[in-house]
Amino acid sequence: MFAACLVKRLSLYRRVLGALASPEGWAGGLGSSDGEYVFSHDLASLAGVSAAQVRRDVMTIGYTGSPRRGYDVAGLIGRIGEFLDAPGGQSAVLVGLGHLGKAVLAYVGGRRTGLRIVAGFDVDPAKCGRVIHGCRCHGMEALAEVIAEHGANVGLVAVPGAEAQNVSIQLVRAGVRGLLNFAPVRLQVPEYVFVEDVDITVSLESVAFFARHDAVRRQAMIKEAVR
Amino acid sequence: MFAACLVKRLSLYRRVLGALASPEGWAGGLGSSDGEYVFSHDLASLAGVSAAQVRRDVMTIGYTGSPRRGYDVAGLIGRIGEFLDAPGGQSAVLVGLGHLGKAVLAYVGGRRTGLRIVAGFDVDPAKCGRVIHGCRCHGMEALAEVIAEHGANVGLVAVPGAEAQNVSIQLVRAGVRGLLNFAPVRLQVPEYVFVEDVDITVSLESVAFFARHDAVRRQAMIKEAVR
DNA sequence: GACGAGTTGTGAATGATATCACAGTGTGAA
DNA sequence: TTCACACTGTGATATCATTCACAACTCGTC
């Protein structure tokens, strides 16, 4: 079983590398790197991890760089794609087209990867039939049918907490095997379903805590420096 | 230094406990627990972690339960609050009032905790002066002033990727010490600033990966069972 | 062609996190 | 009042993730 954090870092590397390889070549102040090749420490600083971590991750997916030149950007992007993406592409559906759902569509819609959000669902009849951010919206009654039609196996849950559990059951019943859950609720699903929670409240409280706590550590460091 | 994951779990426990303690007593099928007391394994299953993890966490924050009855719900909520929350409350500001910003306000606005989102900012003049989800919106030029006025030390960055770095610099300059970043960019900030990334693209790709990978593991398990 | 500077690749060491397993204990039942 | 059970608290252990540190290598330079 591959570690979850490895997969997330690879996804991040790919995005960073994509920016490097793009036509304008990422004007940002990257020390070395001409856009063709990248060193582990450059990729590391762009991704906010250590250089050793980058090298270890690259090794894990079986890619190889060249001493003195670094990693071939296009080649590494390709290898990450082979590792992360489904060979024939993968389809996802989004349930809940409130502010959050729309924001997610706007974010992901632009990205060009092996993964597409092929349909949206909402209880609000006013939204049905409309196309939002390039994604067709259906009523909840069409859920199973549309999922089957596209062979989607990923579901995004962007509904209020009270409905999230119910929605997730419907998704799983329709064949979904991975859930990205934005609702502030822990979903109870069969163990063969993978759930990733994006819990804004929890993240926010965590930031608030460390905003204070780092201040404490700063003072401790100052004290130590004085001594 | 307290581990980041401990803080997140505590935040989660608190929310789950709050649901347990609420008037209607969480109709959901919790085996034991009458709403007054809760066992480590019940809290664990509600939070999606192991019972040993719960006991360890409770120990870490110095709370104590009673054998045979479990933890006092109200007492534990209180202790978690002492640990997580700033004594006099804490203020945060939100930059970017697009779909995502509004969604965040809707989520967090309802919650009653030591943390308040006291102001929003956006470049769009049409939004300035309005009150969205109970939060007053200002133009970017008022950033430093409003932050100073409220003594806010937490900032939420919900702007497009291209502007995120610039916004984060302004926030830090105005005194913010913790950032919750929704933009698909790694922020470069001084090391005394705590950054938490909520990276929807990365999370989604991770879910997509494990939706497939767990399927593989399932097949492997079936093979093994047949043998 | 030989050299040296600056990379990568990776075994080993460290550190962080979660689990195990069981002694200790308060509680309700008899 | 006594007892036994089911739970907590926690040292020890296992697992997972990251970093260290250095040999091996490659490329530009002399």
Strand and helix map with partners:
The structure is a homodimer of 227-residue chains.
Chain A: H1 4-21, E1 37-38, H2 40-47, H3 51-60, E2 71-72, H4 73-84, E3 90-95, H5 99-110, E4 115-122, E5 131-132, E6 135-139, H6 143-150, E7 154-157, H7 161-173, E8 178-181, E9 194-197, H8 200-226
Parallel strand pairs in A: 3-4, 3-7, 4-6, 7-8, 8-9
Antiparallel strand pairs in A: 1-2, 5-6
Helix pairs in contact in A: 1-4, 2-3
The first copy, chain A, binds a DNA duplex (30 and 30 nucleotides) through residues 3, 5-6, 39-41, 49-50, 52-53, 55-56, 58-59, 64-71.
What does it look like?
Two copies of one chain form a homodimer. With 227 residues, chain A is of the alpha/beta class. Chain A folds into two domains: 4-84, Arc Repressor Mutant, subunit A (Orthogonal Bundle), CATH 1.10.10; 90-199, 3-Layer(aba) Sandwich (Rossmann fold). Chain A is built from eight helices and nine strands. Chain A has helices at 4-21, 40-47, 51-60, 73-84, 99-110, 143-150, 161-173, 200-226; strands at 37-38, 71-72, 90-95, 115-122, 131-132, 135-139, 154-157, 178-181, 194-197. In chain A, the strands form two sheets. Chain A has a seven-stranded mixed sheet, with helices on both faces. Chain A has a two-stranded antiparallel sheet with strand order 1-2. In chain A, a hairpin with a 2-residue loop joins strand 5 (131-132) and strand 6. The longest helix of chain A is centred in the C-terminal third of the chain and has 27 residues, at 200-226. The radius of gyration of chain A is 21 Å and the shape is globular. Residues 25-29 and 221-227 of chain A have low confidence and may be disordered. Chains A and B meet through helix 1, helix 5, strand 8 and helix 8 of A and helix 1, helix 5, strand 8 and helix 8 of B. The structure holds a DNA duplex (30 and 30 nucleotides).
